[in-house]
Amino acid sequence: xxxxxxxxxxxxxxxxxxxxxxxxxxxxxxxxxxxxxxxxxxxxxxxxxxxxxxxxxxxxxxxxxxxxxxxxxxxxxxxxxxxxxxxxxxxxxxxxxxxxxxxxxxxxxxxxxxxxxxxxxxxxxxxxxxxxxxxxxxxxxxxxxxxxxxxxxxxxxxxxxxxxxxxxxxxxxxxxxxxxxxxxxxxxxxxxxxxxxxxxxxxxxxxxxxxxxxxxxxxxxxxxxxxxxxxxxxxxxxxxxxxxxxxxxxxxxxxxxxxxxxxxxxxxxxxxxxxxxxxxxxxxxxxxxxxxxxxxxxxxxxxxxxxxxxxxxxx
Length: 315
Known about the structure:
315 residues; alpha+beta; Alpha-Beta Plaits; 2 domains; 5 helices; elongated
């Protein structure tokens, strides 16, 4: 299959279920809301070694927020048991500390069901007020806590919902040159960023160091995806087995001829439909960039998760 002379490999991206929280940060202006959002979503690219996955979803105009101030929505992705800790740490350490901010739950009401969980983030964070905190049930249609801080009051909603979403949707871009790959990846991320309810948690939304499960070193859970490293095409992996006998295994390269740069984009979304829409937007935008050779995706033969996004369905 081809789109604008770019090969769209007939494969699928495999994704899995995980829990998602969606938090609205408001502030005196967009600058401070963005500073809090950037801080709160730091060190959150992959749950392989990060406490969570996180990213900025959308900016929200002042007339659409509870306190009529400009806002930014961020999303957090983590396990069910870990999410309350993630929310308390990120809101308490990264948003409470940022000038002029307030925090509200932004989990979509349309997605609330019997499996939706709640974390007492604001209730627990209120103890930072050291007895001077106050409950307020009248200012908004939900309970908030007012915490005295040095620039006035920090307002935080009492509870935050989180529910099951989809994590790990992906696209892999193969390009003739580094610049072509970067341009295609940027175009893909920019297009997907317009889809609400989806984040791309890696730096700039792009992964340069894609990984595979496992390693020749037993202490590592993941290691470089040698099949997609252009410099390893045609190389041989050497080592010793458990009995100390040397071995040589040719790298099973998936890098196409003429490709010198490969980038991956990971998508986490509130719903499978949101991820599919974001991936479709990415494919259509990236395929217009000169120098892009192919778009493919990563999967584990259906062993990782129940969600499969076939690239042919995105065309």
